[in-house]
């Protein structure tokens, strides 16, 4: 258990408060709960993030206002701290400069230092926040957005209470009606200051704080249902979005075109994450299944794992070389026994390998004849 | 003689190959020897010599093509019968040493095991169900109160169906829709303590859809309804259903999705193990179709039961399950029926609601 916790590729948080670690190479899923052991719906996991770049600790934000930290090396929960303030669940968690940054749905963004239960900084972001995201290139920059709460970019190093960048709503539509705002997910594009958002009104928008234009630089729509989650693909040119019907689509940001759709999900997509270098996409949703798709060469579903509760959020480990990791030790001695006929007599001893030998019943017989050679009565005839 | 006449183009002659390949020798003749009742013309019987790559469908003449096809079919049937006889003889000859008969493939045999089937000992699923939206019903904290309505301007069949449905489900009320929006009806229902809302959708004077929404914040299931039979259309039916609460039987709701839907149906009826009255409502799920029947039973002895069908019957197929009350545009769906699943289901035959 302790060693296997490190090998988990995907960590998923569920509505029953259980953190699940999934190993895709061995196709195993393990449940991790606190020391009490029972799942609790009040501790529904609403936000997950890595505590450090080495991915050795995970921060878990629960619905009752506590933030737990979990060690992936040991497979145990380390500590739990209460982060009260504001109503609603956590919409974003981040680690900056040794401090924990949390944002709740009612708009209170707080910075908590490591060993204290008092926050040192508080910002009011606006009501009905749907997502808070940290810029991976500049950890002191946070972006928030929500329902009727336009995209705002905050800098934690300055002491002002105003955002660095506040987005403006697009122009009225063709009926001269105001276009409603509902930013569901935000991502920072690496290498530039641009920000991509996906909205509940089916739009994908790109904003550029460096340009004087506060309105979106690019806007496209996809589908007929609200977009719930978004992630960047390796290469940085496209994003993958998921909507409430379980449709996943990759959208190219240079032209605003749809590149491909991915099939398989039956329920609303709640969490999406793409691997930083390989075209692997993990998705989880309300249909209780974690799916891993491959985006190119060849495009399709790779793994599907049924986890019994509704899944809220996920974290994909950024490790490379997944396929090189060892599988179960059982197949390795199996290959040795098939070539050496003496081991056949020892089959009852190795109980696990015996099962696997049955389909190869014909082969050892054939090899026996070849091995015995000339003097054998069978081959001489 | 007659052959040249045929080459001229006799309609009676069915030997299409001769006209198709005049260079070929009359190889067709011996096969026709049996069917031809006219003068025996062909002296040398030879096996059929069609040009390679020729298929019966290339014959342009419909009558001849049909004739060739019928003959080919008869031949196939003969060969198959001969093969079967041979196999049977071999089996008898071998006696006890014969290999066991191969098991025929059926739909049920070919099913791939569905991993979402609920294990009764599973703790996580048990906890999930103990704390879901229906828990208060199964803990006897709330008793069901149902509102039945239809789409706007229902016609006679749907109205009668709603009335009959309200006699089947205890504590249910039928209201005329009056063109009101469901999203406005739902808060009013919640304030009047309704626990469930049923909307029967009608198309061209027959009911064809059902939306079942559990009320405080519960899931909403959208079904397609077919084969609706009203009480007067049921043969050998019993008398009217009485006011007693019926027993509920849920068959084959084995997967996780099936469990949710099964609980949804069970929460329509009062949860009371002391049954009075011998009425039973059955929801039988087979291959993703849910069959509803309403019977009155009588135990004639320990093992023998007599049942009388009362009440309406209908068939449902789940189209989507949405988390939250009815909001088809902005709601989050827990399960949506997708055609690509249907295709893989046909190939592998795996149903979603049952094993």
Automatic annotation (TrEMBL), chain A:
Annotated GO CC locations: nucleolus; preribosome, large subunit precursor
Pfam families reported in the protein's UniProt record: WD40 (PF00400)
Keywords tagged on the record: Methylation, Nucleus, Phosphoprotein, Repeat, WD repeat
Chain residue ranges for the region called Disordered: 320-340, 354-381
Region forming the signal peptide: none
Chief location: nucleus
Repeat (WD) residue spans along the chain: 142-164
Keyword Repressor included in the entry's annotation: no
CDD domains: WDR74 (cd22857)
Keyword Repeat belongs to the record: yes
GO biological process, one term: ribosomal large subunit biogenesis
Subcellular location as annotated: Nucleus, Nucleolus
PANTHER family, per the entry: NOP SEVEN ASSOCIATED PROTEIN 1 (PTHR16038), WD REPEAT-CONTAINING PROTEIN 74 (PTHR16038:SF4)
Subunit structure: Isoform 1 interacts (through WDR repeats) with NVL; the interaction is independent of RNA or pre-60S ribosome particles. Isoform 2 does not interact with NVL. Interacts with MTREX; the interaction dissociation in a late stage of rRNA synthesis is required for appropriate maturation of pre-60S particles and depends on the ATPase activity of NVL.
Protein name: WD repeat-containing protein 74
From TrEMBL, chain B:
Listed Gly residues bias regions: 1-10
GO molecular function terms attached to this record: rRNA primary transcript binding
rRNA processing found in the keyword field: yes
One term under GO cellular component: nucleolus
InterPro entries: Brix, IMP4/RPF1
Superkingdom assignment: Eukaryota
Biased composition (Basic and acidic residues): 89-99
Spans annotated as Disordered: 1-105
Subcellular location as annotated: Nucleus, Nucleolus
GO terms, biological process: maturation of 5.8S rRNA; maturation of LSU-rRNA
Domain Brix: 144-327
Keywords annotated in UniProt: Ribosome biogenesis, rRNA processing
Function, in words: May be required for ribosome biogenesis.
Official protein name in the record: Ribosome production factor 1
Organism: Vombatus ursinus (Common wombat)
Gene it is expressed from: RPF1
């Amino acid at each position: 258990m302790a060693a296997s916790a490190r090998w988990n590729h995907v960590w998923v948080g569920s509505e029953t408060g259980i953190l699940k670690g999934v190993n895709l190479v061995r196709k195993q899923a393990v449940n991790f709960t606190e020391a009490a052991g029972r799942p609790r719906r009040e501790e529904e996991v609403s936000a997950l993030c890595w505590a450090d770049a080495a991915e050795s600790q995970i921060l878990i934000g629960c619905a009752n206002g506590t933030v737990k930290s979990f060690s992936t090396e040991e497979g145990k929960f380390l500590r739990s701290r209460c982060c009260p303030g504001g109503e609603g669940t956590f919409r974003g968690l981040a680690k900056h400069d040794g401090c924990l940054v949390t944002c709740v749905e009612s708009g209170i963004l707080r910075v908590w230092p490591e060993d204290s239960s008092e926050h040192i900084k508080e910002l009011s972001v606006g009501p009905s926040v749907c997502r808070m995201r940290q810029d991976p290139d500049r950890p002191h920059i946070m972006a928030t957005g929500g329902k009727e709460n336009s995209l705002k970019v905050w800098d934690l190093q300055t002491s002002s209470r105003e955002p660095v960048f506040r987005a403006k709503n697009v122009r009225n539509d063709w009926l001269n009606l105001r276009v409603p705002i509902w930013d569901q997910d935000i991502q920072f594009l690496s290498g530039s200051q641009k920000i991509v958002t996906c909205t509940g009104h089916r739009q994908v928008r790109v904003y550029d704080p460096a340009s004087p234009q506060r309105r979106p630089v690019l806007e496209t729509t996809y589908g007929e249902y609200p977009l719930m989650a978004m992630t960047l693909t390796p290469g940085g040119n496209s994003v993958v979005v998921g909507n409430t019907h379980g449709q996943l689509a990759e959208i190219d940001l240079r032209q605003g075109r749809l590149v491909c759709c991915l099939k398989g999900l039956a329920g609303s997509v709640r969490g999406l994450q793409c691997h930083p270098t390989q075209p692997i996409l993990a998705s989880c949703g309300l249909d209780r299944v974690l799916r891993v798709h491959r985006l190119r060469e060849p495009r399709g579903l790779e793994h599907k794992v049924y986890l019994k509760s509704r899944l809220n959020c996920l974290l994909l480990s950024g490790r490379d070389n997944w396929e090189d990791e060892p599988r179960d030790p059982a197949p390795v001695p199996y290959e040795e026994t098939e070539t050496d006929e003496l081991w056949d007599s020892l089959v009852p001893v190795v109980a696990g390998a015996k099962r696997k030998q049955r389909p190869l019943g014909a082969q050892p017989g054939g090899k026996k004849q070849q091995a015995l050679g000339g003097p054998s009565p069978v081959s001489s005839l | 003689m007659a052959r040249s006449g045929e080459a001229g183009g006799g309609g009676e002659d069915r030997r299409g190959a001769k006209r198709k390949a005049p260079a070929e020798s009359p190889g067709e003749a011996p096969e026709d020897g049996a069917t031809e009742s006219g003068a025996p013309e062909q002296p040398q019987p030879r096996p059929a010599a069609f040009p390679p790559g020729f298929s019966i469908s290339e014959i342009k003449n419909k009558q001849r093509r049909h004739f060739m096809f019928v003959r080919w079919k008869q031949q196939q049937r003969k060969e198959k019968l001969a093969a079967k006889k041979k196999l049977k003889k071999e089996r008898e000859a071998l006696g006890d040493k014969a290999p066991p008969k191969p098991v025929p493939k059926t739909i049920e045999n070919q099913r791939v095991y569905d991993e979402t089937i609920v294990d009764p000992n599973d703790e996580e699923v048990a906890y999930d169900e103990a704390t879901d939206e229906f828990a208060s019903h199964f803990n006897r904290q709330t008793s069901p109160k149902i509102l039945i309505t239809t789409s706007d301007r229902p016609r006679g069949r749907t109205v009668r169906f709603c009335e009959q449905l309200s006699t089947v489900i205890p504590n249910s009320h039928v209201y005329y829709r009056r063109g009101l929006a469901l999203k406005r009806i739902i808060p009013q229902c919640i304030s009047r303590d309704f626990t469930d809302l049923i909307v029967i959708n009608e198309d061209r004077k027959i009911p064809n859809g059902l939306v079942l929404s559990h009320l405080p914040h519960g899931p909403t299931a959208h079904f397609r309804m077919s084969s609706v039979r009203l009480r007067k259309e049921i043969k050998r039916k019993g008398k009217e259903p009485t006011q007693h609460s019926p027993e509920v039987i849920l068959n084959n709701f084995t997967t996780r999705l099936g469990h949710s839907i099964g609980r949804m149906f069970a929460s329509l009826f009062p949860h009371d193990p002391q049954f009075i009255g011998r009425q039973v409502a059955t929801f039988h799920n087979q291959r993703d179709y849910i069959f509803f029947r309403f019977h009155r039973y009588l135990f004639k002895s320990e093992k023998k039961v007599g049942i009388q069908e009362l009440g309406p019957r209908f068939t449902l197929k789940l189209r989507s399950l949405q988390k939250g009350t009815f909001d088809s545009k902005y709601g989050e769906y827990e399960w949506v029926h997708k055609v690509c699943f249907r295709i893989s289901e046909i190939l592998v035959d795996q149903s979603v609601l049952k094993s």
